Amino acid sequence: MWRLVMSRRLIAVILLIIVPLVFAGCISSAQLSSPDFSKLYKKTQESVVQIKTKKYVDEKDGLRIERHAASGVVMASRRIAENRFETRVLTNFHVVRNQDELYVHTADGKQYRATILGYDELRDLASLTMTTSQQLQPVVLGESEKLNIGDWAYLIGNPLGIPWSLSVGRIGNIGKNPLYDTIQFDGGLNKGNSGGALFNTKGELVGISHRVGGDNIGFAISARIVKQLWPALERGEVVSHGYIGVTLTEIGWLDQATARALGLSYPPQIEIGVVISDVVPYSSAFFAGLMVGDIIVAIARTKITTVEDAQDAIARSGPGTQILLTIIRGNLVKDFIMPVESAPVSGNKGPADAALKNS
User: Fold this and answer.
1) What are 90-99's pLDDT values in tens digits?
2) CATH of domain 144-234
3) Which residues are catalytic?
């Protein structure tokens, strides 16, 4: 009995010694595997700028000045003369739209007057140009396509006017729309983060923050879109997208009630194509004779299988051009040729949902 008691006491002592050591080892291992956000912040902070805007508003009792602060990222900076550098900054279009004065503040405390160079209103991106007294550090573009849900990421911006603030979180979702990819980020986001830089754990830019979704959920425009769009913005172009005035639904998403409402059999007798679920009055599609229930199976003789396929094909057709749609209506296959309009946008807070859903 005495030996049994001593054995139990010995086991208890050993556990008291070993368990804390094992637990400490687990913490140490976790700490070693966690990103060093302090180091990453120092590495990338100088590539983020603060943007301050002024708008002069005429009122009955005089002139009122509206002031706002947001964020931006340095995309390029090259020498044009001694102590003079041409610097380009990327931000959200809604940050600079209809503003009378734009000022860019850099991490070293300097301020520069900036002007809008180019923009894409639908995708809510704009380029700014300014002359700086020193070369600024451009961001390194990463591959947003390689992000995974659950990955660590961090955002540097100016929430609530607090300059160069760090937000750390995880990637919550990744959009796949070919025209407008969005990345969901669950770090703390607030007004003023617009135009801020979303980085991966390599310190590479994977997104431009542009919208707060509530409950600390925000959305960023993917680096894939930035790479695709930047050459045009840097050239000073105003980028527009094609639009014909239809709302589309994929065949596979149709339920019985929706199919019947669209005048289709259920299950549909066709597996490819997208269904027109609405036609905007007086749009290009309206005047061309497209109807609710028509199934688009090809655009410019290229097979269409998803809504994204159709949106991308229409959006890439420049406004002012013509587009060929192949439609199945009942038992007939028809071709429709129609002019492409410019995609509508609304408000000044970013992309219009209607323009994204419609094509």
Assistant:
1) 999 999 999 9
2) 2.40.10.10
3) 94, 124, 194
